[in-house]
Predict the structure.
Amino acid sequence: MVTEARGDPVRQAVGSTGRSAEPGVARQLSELARELQADITPEALLKHIVRAAVTEVPGAQCAGITLVTGKEFSTTAASGELVGRIDRVQYETGEGPCLDAARHHETVRCDDLQADTRWPRFARQAAGLGVLSVLSFQLFAGDDSFGALNIYAENAAAFGPDSESTGILLASHAALAMTAARTEAGLLTALDSREMIGQAKGILMERHKITGVEAFGLLIASSQAVNRKLRDIAEHLVATGELLTPSR
Amino acid sequence: MNGPGAGFSLSDGWDLSGLTLAELWLRYLALGGTASKTRVAAYAGGLLRPDSYQHNMIAQAINERFTDLGEDHPVSYQDIPFLP
């Protein structure tokens, strides 16, 4: 292959070790790729990716996927209880490799938390929980939300180049699954809103003997007058029969 | 600066909102819109002139981004009726 490696995580991962991934990893990835298209929930797929991270990334002992939305910090998938506890330490101290990976870098690696000066408060507490090596991969970075795949081990220097390259392959699948999950969540919210607005238009059409376009205009006029979103105006109308106006 | 009542055009409002096309289109669909993403991009970018219904739906989609940010409705509407 002579294709330029830059910007292609899969090719970079393979290239960094000078050979292709292990057969076990290839099998796992091919299963994950099929599952991306299959009828399973993104949450189930992320759990599968976390399991694969523990079994296929050399040196890994536990792994998890962390989602940061605004100031909320959630562990979306985890191989064990320890992952959630380490996430909480990062949340409480406001620092750590997972946060750095999620916000700033594609990959963050720490070989010995006891000797690391990047996150002093996190390092001390995580080492107290029995974790010394950390690998974190950015999954996506949006306006106000970030995600990362984190892999941990209790020994220092547990991860080598093979661990990083395998981790990147799994992270790219997790990133696709998370994008699919976010798209699905957005569509469900949109459908819910459409339904509510449709009902509200119907009420106004019948009440005032007007067209759907005119009913939509009334909803906008109400939204503008009270500075609330159209879905809220519609929900109030459907629930109470009342179209919100400034005087009420 | 545009004071209350003057209002931004769709394309100026879209620029200021920071919404991506995908985000704008999803918000438009949530309000009941049925036009394709490409058509919404053309309407909101000023390449095609929408009718007042489409204009208002896109204006509302953009304005609700500003509502989320604690602001009022800066993008102007077309032919909005008086409240009963």
Summary: Chain B has one domain: 10-68. Residues 10-68 of chain B form one domain.
